[in-house]
TrEMBL record:
EC number(s) reported in the record: 2.7.13.3
Keyword hit for Plastid: no
Gene3D superfamilies per record: 1.10.287.130, 3.40.50.2300, Histidine kinase-like ATPase, C-terminal domain (3.30.565.10)
Swiss-Prot/TrEMBL catalytic activity: ATP + protein L-histidine = ADP + protein N-phospho-L-histidine
Keywords annotated in UniProt: Coiled coil, Kinase, Phosphoprotein, Transferase
Protein name as annotated: histidine kinase
Superkingdom of the organism of origin: Bacteria
UniProt organism field: Methylobacterium iners
Enzyme class, first EC level, given as a word: transferase
Residue positions where 4-aspartylphosphate is found in the record: D379
Stretches of the chain forming a coiled coil according to its record: 61-88
Pfam families: HATPase_c (PF02518), HisKA (PF00512), Response_reg (PF00072)
Length: 446
């Protein structure tokens, strides 16, 4: 534009400037319109693309949910199958154990009766070896059955208040002779505490821990200590033995793992003690901890809740055995070998013994004038589905007396224990331990 416009040119220049401004405004408006149209189109395209992605992701998630549902159904089916297999295994082991323990019972009673006879040193040594072998077989069968029951979840703890000093004293007393023979100190340190647990399961745990501690300790001793830890009690079994290497600390809780230390008889353990311990501790919800220094010893610690209730009085020392001279004992046992072995054993203890296979034989003997017995030893499972406790009922009705009854069985079903307890009978599981039987007989006849 000419900077030196004449007066006649100024109006034209103003119109040109105005038109340029109008043109610029129109161009800006067009550009804005085009930008808005372009943005709207872009948004439309983006919306379509996002809708496609959402649809694809939805289909993906739906497929994944269906897959998870099928997986869950498969897991539930597998869990049910495993539980059924566990129950079947437990039933099989229970039945097999019953059939295996019956002849084992007769063999143990016969071996015990043989040991009571006047024998030479060599015969006594052989008798002892037979007895130890039978004991190992019995322990193995019972422990495998226990593990199967724990794995199947059929063992239900019965939680009660327990006086801890009494329990620890009973455990220590049972191992004192073994510790003394190895030259070890066995001590307990326990304040006056009561805990909440299953008495029999807790005792089993502690017995296994103390047994292991003594087995793997060559010198020094074993301490069983309890202490309060807030609302909990911590029971520790501490030994000065060989210790456990880091690599072995998980293995020791597995079945049939043996650390290599021989038992008192020179034989290694079964390798099942700590496997039982860990399963029972889990069933009771009592955390178990292991610490160890190779060459210095091991500490096993069990944590369980304290209890302010009245302590359980079930755990008591065995009564002192006395002679059974003249005691009239009636046996009902359908296994001929077991009945003969038990008769020999009781007659070695100077008891007067009569044995029968069933209630019919007992009833016939009573009709023939046989004197009423002082005590009954009754096999629970007799022939043709009969129950040995029927004999006790018959004799109570006939004599008007409630006779002491010992029920023998290789069946660990809880309903058997409940029925025996309901009539005041004591249970002795087969194979029968002669020392336990003699102690119980003396106690019941006293």
């Amino acid at each position: 534009m000419n900077l030196h416009a004449t007066p006649s040119e100024e109006p034209l220049l103003r119109r040109i400037a105005k038109l340029e401004r109008i043109n610029a405004a129109l161009m800006a408006h067009v550009e804005r319109s085009m930008d808005q149209q372009g943005g709207a189109y872009s948004l439309f395209q983006t919306a379509i693309m996002l809708e496609g992605r959402v649809r694809a992701r939805t289909e993906e998630l739906t497929a994944l949910m269906h897959s998870l549902e099928r997986s869950n159904e498969a897991l539930v089916a597998a869990k049910e199958e495993a539980e059924t297999a566990n129950r079947s295994k437990t039933r099989f082991l229970a039945a097999a154990s019953h059939d295996l323990l019956q002849p084992l019972n007769a063999a143990r009673l016969s071996a015990s009766a043989l040991a009571d006879l006047p024998l030479g040193p060599e015969a006594l040594a052989i008798s002892g070896q037979v007895e130890r072998g039978l004991q190992i077989i019995e322990d193995l069968i019972k422990t495998l059955l226990d593990i199967s029951k724990l794995d199947a979840g059929v063992v239900r703890p019965v939680i009660k208040p327990i006086a801890l000093p009494d329990l620890l004293s009973a455990v220590a007393a049972s191992f004192a002779p073994l510790a003394a023979r190895k030259g070890l100190r066995l001590r307990i340190r326990c304040p006056d505490l009561a805990v909440a647990s299953d008495p029999m399961m807790l005792q089993r745990i502690l017995r296994n821990l103390v047994s292991n501690a003594i087995r793997y300790t060559a010198r020094g001793g074993v301490l069983i200590a309890a202490r309060r830890r807030g609302p909990l009690c911590r029971i520790e079994v501490i030994d000065t033995g060989r210790g456990i290497a880091e690599a072995e600390r998980d293995l020791v809780f597995e079945e049939f793992y043996r650390g290599g230390a021989p038992g008192e008889d020179g034989e290694p353990g079964l390798g099942l003690g700590l496997s039982i311990v860990t399963r029972m501790a889990q069933a009771l919800d009592h955390p178990l901890a292991l610490t160890s220094r190779p060459g210095h010893g091991t500490r096993m610690a069990l944590s369980l809740p304290l209890c302010a209730g009245a302590p359980d009085a079930e755990i008591r020392p065995d009564p002192i055995a006395t002679r059974l001279t003249g005691a009239r004992i009636l046996i009902v046992e359908n296994d001929v070998a077991a009945a003969e072995a038990l008769k020999r054993l009781l007659r070695n203890w100077d008891a007067e013994v009569e044995a029968y296979r069933d209630l019919g034989g007992v009833a016939a003997a009573m009709e023939a004038g046989t004197a009423a017995p002082d005590l009954l030893i009754l096999d629970y499972h007799l022939d043709d589905g009969a129950c040995g406790l029927d004999v006790a009922t018959h004799l109570r009705e006939r004599t008007g007396r409630v006779l002491p009854v010992i029920v023998t069985t290789a069946d660990y079903a809880p309903e058997i224990g409940a029925r025996a307890a309901s009539v005041g009978a004591e249970i002795v599981h087969k194979p029968i331990k002669p020392a336990q039987l003699r102690s119980l007989l003396t106690y019941m006849l006293a």
